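Entry 14. Structure prediction run on the chain below.
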Amino acid sequence: MRRTWEQCLAILAVCLLVSPAQATKPTPDEMAEARKWFAVRFAEERQAARPFSFVYDGKDSTALLSQWKLKATSRKLGPDRTECTLIYNDPETGLELRCVAVEYEDSPTVEWTLWFKNAGAQNTPILEKIQALDVSVERGEAGEFLLHHNRGSIAAKGDYEPFETPLSPSTNKRISAAGGRPTNSDLSYFNLEYGEGGMIVVVGWPGQWAAEFVRDGGKGLRIRAGQELTHFTLRPGEEVRSPLIVLQFYKGDWIRAQNIWRRWMIAHNLPRPGGKLPPPQLAASSSRQYGEMINANEENQKMFIDRYLEEGIKLDYWWMDAGWYVNKTGWPNTGTWEVDTKRFPRGLRAVSDYAHSKGIKIIVWFEPERVTAGSWLAENHPEWILGGKSGGLLNLGNKDAWNWLVNHVDTLLTDQGIDLYRQDFNMDPLSFWRGNDAADRQGITEIYHVMGYLAYWDELLRRRPSLLIDACASGGRRNDIETMRRAVPLWRTDYAFEPIGTQCHTYGISFWLPFSGAGTVASSGAPYYGSGRTEVDVYAFRSNICPSTGSGIDMREKEIDYAALRRLIEQWREHIAPNYYGDYYPLTPYSQESGAWMAWQFDRPESGSGVVQAFRRQDSPMEAVRLRLRGLEPEASYTVADLDGNKPEEVSGRKLMEEGLLVTIPGKPGAAVVTYKKGQE
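Output returned:
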C-alpha cells in the first residue's frame, strides 16, 4: 500500500508522539504472553495445539500426532534460553518427528525447527505440505490486521523498501523467495500489527520459502510458512529439517517492536568473531581500477594500501574481490580455487602479510557454489555438480563435495592469511534443485543443499572462532536469519553508490538487520573518485556510510581533497558509527522521490546519546524540517550539536520529542548529521 507524502507525514507525526519515553525493553505483559504461548504450543500434553502442520500418507498431522508416541524433554541452554524438545514416533512406519523449540527469557521471542527422520527399515510413505509455521490469530474489536514487510534485494533503488499491506476480511497475501535465494525478491521478515500490538514472524530458510496470510470473514487470520515444495519419501536412516521459525510478541507501537527485535538480533544472533560483536569497519579495494582482481597483482595491491596510509586514512580491511584465482576459460570463471601465481608469485599471502604488518586485515572473495564449465571442479568431479561437466551448482548435499570444499577453503584461509571470508552466490539454484528430484523426492535436493551450506559455515567457524563471514550473494539475496546468525551482509545490494537509493536501503534494512555494508562515492554522478575530480561530495559520502563502509577511491590520483575525506571518515568513526547498534527510528516517511527529505535516528538510551542523519534531496523546496525524536527522557537536558560547525545547544528531551529537532540544510542536495548527549544528572 502506498500513501502520499502528506498522508505519511501525518501518520508518522502521530506515531512518533505515542509513548515517546517508552523503553525498548520488553514489558512484563509481553514476556508473559510469550511464555504462555510457548507453554501452550510446546506442552507435554498430547492434545496441545502445535504451531506446525504436515500431511503424511495422505493424513493430516493433527490427527496423526494424537496417535503417535510422544516424549518431551527440556534443558537450559544458558542464562537466557530454555530448549524444549518434542519427539513423536509413528509405530507403524518408523517416522520420527523432532520439534526443537527455544524460549528466550530476556525477550518475548520463541523459535523452533522441525526434524523428520526415518527410523524404520523401509521407505516411508509420502511426507508433504510441511508447514513449519501454521497458526491462527484473532484480533480484538479495535485495530485491523496490517502486515509490515519489505522488498528484498533485486539490485534496484527500491531494495529493502518497506510496505504496508492491509489484511481485510476474506483476503489472502502470499509472499515467497524467488529462484531459491531467500531474499532475492522479498525479505523473509514480517511484522503483523493488529489490535493493541502484534507479532513479528520470521522464516529462516536459505532456500525457496513461502508464507501465506489468509484472512477469514471475521476476526481471524491464519499464517502458514515453510519450504515452498515438499513431497517426498524418506529412506531408512535419512533425516531432514524444516525452516527455522521465529515469533516475537509485542504490545503497542510496531516501530518499538522492531527495536526489541534489533536488540534480540544483537544479543542472540549477530556473529561474534573472537567473542566480540563486529565493530563498524572501513574496508577498501582497488576493484574498480583493476576489474575486480582480474588485473590486480602483488605490486598494485601493496601500492594502494600504501597510498591510503600516506593520506592518513586508517583501514580496517583490505578487500580482494573476484579474479585472484587461476582463470582458464575467461571471466567469470569459477570453480578453480587456486591463486594465480603469475600475478601473485608468492600467493595472496604476500599481500596479507604486508597488510597485517600495517594493522590491516584481509577480505577475500569466493563463490564456491557456482561452477563453470572447464574449471577444475567441472572437469575432475562432474558428479559433484548439478549440471555435470557443463557447469552448474556445487551440490553441498554431496558429502564428498562438502568435505573437499571445507578442507580446501580452510587450507586457503590459512595459507593465504585471510581474515574475512566473503561468499558470493550469483545464480538461482532452484531449477538445479528441482531438476534433480524424482517425483517422490520433491524438495529433498534443496533440503540437503541448505543443510550442507549451513554446516559448511558452521565447520569453518568451529575451526576458526575469530573468522567473520560476509554473505554477499549478488548483494543481499541471502539475508535470511539462519544465514545472518553466521554472517553479515557487507554488500547489501548490487545497486550501489547512487545517494537516494542508498539512503532508501539504509532506511529499510535497519528495521531488521543491525549490521550491513555499502560503498562510498565521490559525487552523485560518479561511481568512484577519479576522472580529475578533486572535491569530496559530502552529500554522496554521507548517503552511503553504514556499519561496514567500503571505499573504492582511485588512490593513484593525488589531487583529491584528502583532508576533507579524512574529516568525513573521522566524523563517521567518532560520531556516527558508535550508534549503529542502538535503537532505530525512521523520522520521515520512506520515499524515493527527488523532492523529499529523508531522516532517521539511532538512539542509545543506556548512554543517553544518539545521532540523527538527515538528507535534503536535489529537488526539495524545503530548506528546513522539524524532526520529532524518540526514546529520550522528557525531563532530561541534551546537548545537541551538528557536525558542520554550528554552536551546540542545550535542549530538553520533551522539546526534542514534541516540538522536534530543527534541521536546516541550505544547499541542495545536502546532508546533515546531528548528535545529542544527555547531560549529567
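Residues 444-463 form the longest helix (20 residues).
Filed with the rest of this week's runs.
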